User: What shape does this take?
Amino acid sequence: MNKIIIILVFFLSLTSFGQTSSYQIALLKYNGGGDWYANLETSLPNLISYCNKNLKTNINEEQGIVDIGSSEIFNYPFLHITGHGNIVLNGDETENLRSYLIGGGFLHISDNYGMDKFLRPQMKKVFPELEFVEIPYSHPIYHQKYNFNNGLPKIHEHDENPPQGFGLIYEGRLVCFYDFECDLGDGWEDQEVHNDSEENRLKSLKMGANLIQYAFSE
Assistant: This one.
C-alpha cells in the first residue's frame, strides 16, 4: 500500500480530537552527529502528560523514538525533532519525510541552539519548492486552547533575539512548525534539568499543547 494512503487511513482513524483510541507521538532520530537525544528523558513525556490532563487527549504516555528513514514514522501523527548540532538526511530519508508530511503528518522542530544552519538546508531537500515563512501571530496555531497574542514565549535567552515561529506550508496546510530562539522542548523538561522558572515552563507546555491540538484538528 502506498505510504501516503497508509498515513491517511491512520489519521482518519483519529475520529475527533481527544476522543480516540490511544496513539503515540515520537521523537525523531537523525544522522550527522547532532544530539537528537538532547531532551530525551522528560521533554515529550511531560508534554504528553500535560496534554492528556488539560486537553483530555489520550496520547500514549510512552514517547515513540523513530528513525527518519523508517516506515514506522507513518505510525505517528506528530513528530518532534530537536538538538544543537549537525543533521544530515540522505535521499531515502528525505523522500520518507516528504511522503509523511504530504500524507497528513505534522513535524515540530525545536532548535535547542546551533541547529538552524544545519537544519534549513536539509529541510530544503525535503521541500525544494518551499521556504520557511514566519507564522503570523494571528495564525490558529497561536490560538488553540491557549492564546499567544505575541507569538512564541521566550524560554531560553541564547542570543537574546526575539523568539520566532517559522513554518513550511504545503498546498495551504502547515506541515512543519519550527520554533527558533525559543527552545520549547527545553521548557517541557523537568524543572531541575535547566532550572527554568515555573512561569516559563507553563508557557512552554501551553504552547506545546497548542501544537498538539492544532496538528490533530487540521
Observations:
- The helical segments are 3-12, 43-54, 91-102, 116-126, 184-188, 191-194, 198-217.
